[in-house]
């Protein structure tokens, strides 16, 4: 097959600065790498208050399940440090996007020590420090989890596909741009690349917001990986040509029964993978498993504005109110635009977490894994 990739050839291991806390004289801020502008420019977005951060979350300046958790935790710390109503800010943050459970988990992670500090007689400054400490800890832990997922994931790939250089298909963006570390599914591919066992990373462009074409390709090029971008609807012919050894995706929420919500277009890949007898692997931290969501039908799937489908804008900068792109449909066309879809557990070969691999994917096996992680 013709090699259509455009690699930089470099292996740039410096971390991508996706989120950080700063305390300039004007007061604390959360600084984000504005992912709406990638790959055209590496621009920073400074959020000095919670409404600015909520807007950044809704418009995908900051995105991806684990990073949403970290952003939510820093958001609570920001509200606390700025002396606004922390309970209301936490509710705003947690509700900014409904599907990625990590967002609400991250918010709770910072809110609990804030409230505990106040309940224990601490003043607001001490409570704010407790919230910031929790956000920083979550940020660090996510980096560690990412490294462990990468190791478990590569070991699994090597088991499933012995003796080979792997040709892996991925969807959306799951690398350093979504994490305190190197990500989830992408981190596994990167680990394989560093071990000399990745012969091709197939990158779905991921319509409509192009997280694959804009962001995963950016990360793959940055790391000197052999990658090729395809339109989402070219995946079928790629499987049929025998060019895919495994699919690696992330997750926004994993229900108790192992149903996986991830970027829309993941479910069709799972169906293709099953038909072509290719392993379909989901890589996610344990915090993405939501024991309170019993099954796939109970997962709330975010519906996004139709203009994301009916207009094309690159770099993609349209806000929640939208518009401003080049129309590609007749005026007034309605669009179906779910941000995620749900893959049933029977189509998932394995779920890879920092605590280990679940395969086959069953309610019982997932519950054991979550219990184990709580005891650590
Ligand atoms: O809408 P996005 O860009 O936030 O969607 C992100 C995804 O669907 C990722 O695949 C998912 O968050 C897993 S990232 C580890």
From TrEMBL:
The active site is at residue 252. InterPro entries: IF-2B-related, IF-M1Pi, IF_2B-like_C, Initiation_fac_2B_a/b/d, M1Pi_N, NagB/RpiA_transferase-like. The record marks 172 as: Transition state stabilizer. Pathway: Amino-acid biosynthesis; L-methionine biosynthesis via salvage pathway; L-methionine from S-methyl-5-thio-alpha-D-ribose 1-phosphate: step 1/6. The keyword Membrane does not apply. Its EC number is 5.3.1.23. Pfam families: IF-2B. Keywords: Amino-acid biosynthesis, Isomerase, Methionine biosynthesis. It catalyses: 5-(methylsulfanyl)-alpha-D-ribose 1-phosphate = 5-(methylsulfanyl)-D-ribulose 1-phosphate. Substrate binds at residues 63-65, 97, 211, 262-263. One of its GO terms (molecular function) is S-methyl-5-thioribose-1-phosphate isomerase activity. Catalyzes the interconversion of methylthioribose-1-phosphate (MTR-1-P) into methylthioribulose-1-phosphate (MTRu-1-P). NCBIfam families: eIF-2B_rel (TIGR00524), PRK05720.1 (NF004326), salvage_mtnA (TIGR00512). Belongs to the EIF-2B alpha/beta/delta subunits family. MtnA subfamily. This is Methylthioribose-1-phosphate isomerase. It comes from Streptomyces macrolidinus.
């Amino acid at each position: 097959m013709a090699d259509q990739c455009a690699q930089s050839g470099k292996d740039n291991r410096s971390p991508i600065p996706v989120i950080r806390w700063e305390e300039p004289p004007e007061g604390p801020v959360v600084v984000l790498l504005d992912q709406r502008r990638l790959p055209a420019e590496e621009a920073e977005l400074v959020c000095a208050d919670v409404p600015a951060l909520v807007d950044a979350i809704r418009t995908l300046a900051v995105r991806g399940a684990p990073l949403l958790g970290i952003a939510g935790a820093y958001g609570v710390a920001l509200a606390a440090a700025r002396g606004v109503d922390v309970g209301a800010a936490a509710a705003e943050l947690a509700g900014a996007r409904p599907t990625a459970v990590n967002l609400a988990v991250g918010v709770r992670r910072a809110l609990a020590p804030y409230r505990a500090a106040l309940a224990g007689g601490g003043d607001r400054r001490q409570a704010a420090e407790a919230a910031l400490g929790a956000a920083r800890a979550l940020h660090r832990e996510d980096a560690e989890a990412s490294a462990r997922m990468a190791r478990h994931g590569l070991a699994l790939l090597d088991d499933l596909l012995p003796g080979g250089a792997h040709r892996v298909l991925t969807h959306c963006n799951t690398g350093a741009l979504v994490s305190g570390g190197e990500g989830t599914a992408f981190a596994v591919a990167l680990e394989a690349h560093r071990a000399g066992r990745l012969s091709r990373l197939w990158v779905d462009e991921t319509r409509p917001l192009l997280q694959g074409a804009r962001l995963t390709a950016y990360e793959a090029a940055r790391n000197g990986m052999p990658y090729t971008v395809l339109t989402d609807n070219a995946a079928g012919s790629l499987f049929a040509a025998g060019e895919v050894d495994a699919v690696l995706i992330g997750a926004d929420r994993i229900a108790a029964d192992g149903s996986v919500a991830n970027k829309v277009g993941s479910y069709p890949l799972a169906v293709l993978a099953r038909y072509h007898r290719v392993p379909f692997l989901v890589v996610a931290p344990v915090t993405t498993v939501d024991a309170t969501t019993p099954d796939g039908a109970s997962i709330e799937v975010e519906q996004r504005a139709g203009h994301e489908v009916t207009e094309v804008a690159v770099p993609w900068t349209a806000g929640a109110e939208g518009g401003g792109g080049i129309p590609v449909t007749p005026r007034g066309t309605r669009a179906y635009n779910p941000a995620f879809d749900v893959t049933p557990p029977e189509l998932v070969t394995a779920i890879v977490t920092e605590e280990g691999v679940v395969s086959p994917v069953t309610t019982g096996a997932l519950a054991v894994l979550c219990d184990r992680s709580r005891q650590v």
